[in-house]
Design brief:
11 helices, Rossmann fold, alpha/beta, 5-stranded parallel beta sheet, 37% helix
Length: 257
């Protein structure tokens, strides 16, 4: 394999701009060219309102953080109980803030893997606070309720559809038409849905023929449901290195992500 296996490969990075740096660097280290096209804006909710909602809730025995954004905007509302996280990036955010992570998936990075952890097997009667951004999957709360836990949601941020300038859209289309967008990275179903809404018509028409790399099986299904002839690829995880290995595998037949 070449020392720079992504030389000549243009990658569309759809993560929020403040979270894209690690993936962009990993792509560029392998010789690729990343083009940032954020499809989600992360906006903190009014802190006085969030604080009032948190104060009205029972003190949590366990607080679950759904994302590193939840940690950034909601760590101060974790109470004095255990801290649980949905994946490695969220765990790093908690530890970087000087706190201890008590429960995290040993494998995987989703609700299913977190629910399989021993710390969530005997929780009858415990108060669990889930800190998140707006609405999301109900699997975690539903299953924990089935196990006897009392669930309280605390939303500390929201995801918005960005406003994209005509110049940015024109640059993206020019790059794509010029052969400089070879792969798209998408981290969530909402990201894919927003991407489809934001793209110019010609770019949208290329989604079925441009490989998409994602760490989420739900994104894979959504992509195939919308574009049956597309070639979405599942990476081994959401970390920058895992995503880049999947992109490299696309350029190197025979390698698995």
């Amino acid at each position: 394999m070449a020392e720079t296996p992504l030389e000549g490969v243009g990658v569309l990075v759809t993560r929020p701009r403040t979270q894209a740096a690690e993936l962009v660097s990993a792509i560029e280290e392998q010789g690729g060219e990343a083009f940032c096209f954020p499809v989600i804006d992360i906006v903190a909710l009014d802190q006085s309102r969030v604080s009032a909602e948190a104060s009205a809730m029972p003190s949590p025995d366990v607080t679950i953080f759904i994302s590193r954004n939840a940690v950034e905007y909601g760590l101060k509302y974790s109470g004095g109980g255990k801290i649980a996280v949905i994946g490695p990036a969220t765990a790093r955010a908690v530890r970087s803030a000087g706190r201890v992570v008590d429960i995290e998936p040993k494998d995987g990075h989703d609700s299913e893997h977190l629910l399989a952890e021993p710390g969530f097997q005997d929780i009858d009667g415990l108060d669990v606070r889930i800190i998140r951004g707006g609405k999301g999957r109900e699997l975690l709360a539903s299953e924990l309720r089935n196990r006897g836990a009392n669930i309280n949601y605390l939303s500390v941020y929201e995801r918005r559809l960005p406003v994209v300038s005509p110049d940015m859209l024109a640059e993206l289309e020019a790059r794509w038409r010029g052969g400089n967008i070879s792969v798209i990275t998408v981290m969530s179903v909402q990201s894919l849905q927003n991407l489809i809404k934001l793209l110019p018509d010609w770019c949208r028409s290329q989604l079925e023929s441009t490989p998409l790399v994602t760490p989420a099986g739900r994104v894979l299904k959504e992509a195939l449901d919308r574009y049956p002839a597309s070639r979405p690829i599942l990476s081994s995880g959401p970390q920058a290195g895992e995503m880049v290995q999947a992109i490299i595998a696309l350029q190197s037949p025979g390698l698995a992500p």
